[in-house]
Design a protein that fits this description.
The complex is a heterodimer of chains A (83) and B (273).
Chain A lengths: L1 H49 L3 H10 L10 H8 L2
Chain B lengths: L1 H56 L4 H60 L5 H48 L5 H25 L13 H38 L18
Helix pairs in contact in B: 1-2, 2-3, 2-4, 3-4, 3-5, 4-5
The chains are: A mainly alpha (83), B mainly alpha (273).
Chain lengths: 83, 273
């Protein structure tokens, strides 16, 4: 009976100890993810900084074509004409 | 009795160590987020102190002090740029998630209306026409998804250009140039981009339903739905065009800033920490 109680106490303590370890591991993982994100943000920021001249911004904007939607409706219009 | 005491002591020891680990982790978790900022603050403080010392003791020349300040300003600029990129990413992610959620919610509704349409189509004698109507219904809603996605990509690209304009404007301001006009144009462009994104989210939530009468009037029943889709998408497209033109205006205003072309690119541009 005495041994059983002692065993339970030890088990609870062990579980708590393991839970502490798990929390620590989780925090370390989170830290790594945040570090990676930070690096990636800095890289993108540097890339923007290195290509921020007026000429480059203009050239990039000119490349953004916003096409007319007429072609997209061709298939539907063909079907409509069959009705 | 002795054994029991030993066991209890052992268990208490384990409990205390577990508690310590958990408490330590909690403190570390809180500290981690602030750690980077704290280090930067300390670095800035150090630079300020160093500059102060240089002036007081005369150990450093005035030029060295200026260089320190310039370095600090460059560091601030870099930090501002990283924060801006973080915000842009966050907004994009939120928009994508919202649209995905809206589409998920609509899936059931689209299917439900499709079944209702199928029932109506069952009354038609011409099976080929029934198939065409069903196909048009599917295509209308698919086309809506496709074009909204395509225009969202354009909005992201436009925003990337605006980020470059903001970066160069920050540098110009650092160099002492008057960029108040550019700042105003940037705000207008940001609003236009935000409007276009909001419109894309709204458009993603639209479902196009076909209700048919008799076989002879199929075309006239469906055509208004098709026209409504095109008109809605065209309105969204126009908002994206407006956003692009607002960014163009910001670039033009930036180009007119006296001395902008001669502005040196910050040496921090190519460095990695």
């Amino acid at each position: 009976m005495k041994n059983k109680k002692t065993l339970i106490i030890i088990l609870v303590a062990l579980i708590l100890f393991l839970a502490g370890g798990f929390v620590r591991l989780k925090n370390q993982k989170q830290l790594l993810v945040e570090e990676e994100e930070r690096k990636s943000l800095e890289q993108e920021a540097q890339q923007i900084e290195a290509t921020d001249s007026v000429a480059e911004a203009e050239a990039l904007l000119d490349q953004i074509e916003i096409e007319s939607l007429d072609d997209d409706f061709e298939v539907i219009d063909e079907d409509l004409n069959k009705l | 009795m002795k054994n029991r005491l030993i066991f209890v002591l052992l268990a208490t020891g384990l409990l205390l160590s577990a508690g310590k680990v958990v408490a330590q982790n909690k403190i570390e978790a809180g500290d981690n987020k602030a750690a980077v900022e704290t280090i930067r603050q300390e670095e800035r403080e150090e630079i300020r102190q160093e500059v102060g010392t240089a002036v007081e003791t005369g150990e450093k020349t005035r030029e060295e002090a200026r260089e320190e300040i310039r370095m600090e300003e460059r560091e601030n600029l870099k930090e501002a740029r990283v924060e801006s990129v973080r915000q842009v990413r966050q907004t994009r992610q939120e928009t994508r998630e919202n649209i995905e959620r809206i589409r998920e919610e609509n899936r059931g509704l689209i299917e439900q209306r499709r079944l209702a349409l199928k029932e109506q189509l069952g009354l038609l004698q011409n099976e080929e026409k029934a198939e065409i109507v069903e196909r048009i219904y599917d295509n209308l809603n698919r086309l809506n998804d496709q074009i909204v996605t395509r225009l969202l990509v354009k909005i992201d690209q436009i925003e990337e250009v605006l980020e470059r304009v903001k970066s160069r404007t920050d540098k110009a301001q650092e160099a002492g140039l008057d960029v108040s006009g550019v700042r105003e144009a940037i705000v207008v462009a940001e609003e236009a981009i935000e409007n276009a994104r909001a419109a894309a989210e709204t458009q993603a939530g639209n479902v196009y339903e076909i209700t048919i009468g008799d076989e002879a009037s199929l075309r006239t029943d469906i055509k208004p739905v098709r026209d409504r889709l095109q008109s809605d998408l065209e309105a969204l497209r126009q908002k994206v065009v407006l956003a692009r033109e607002a960014v163009r205006e910001a670039i033009t205003t930036l180009a007119q800033v006296r001395g902008i072309e001669g502005l040196e690119i910050s040496p921090s541009a190519g460095k990695t920490e």
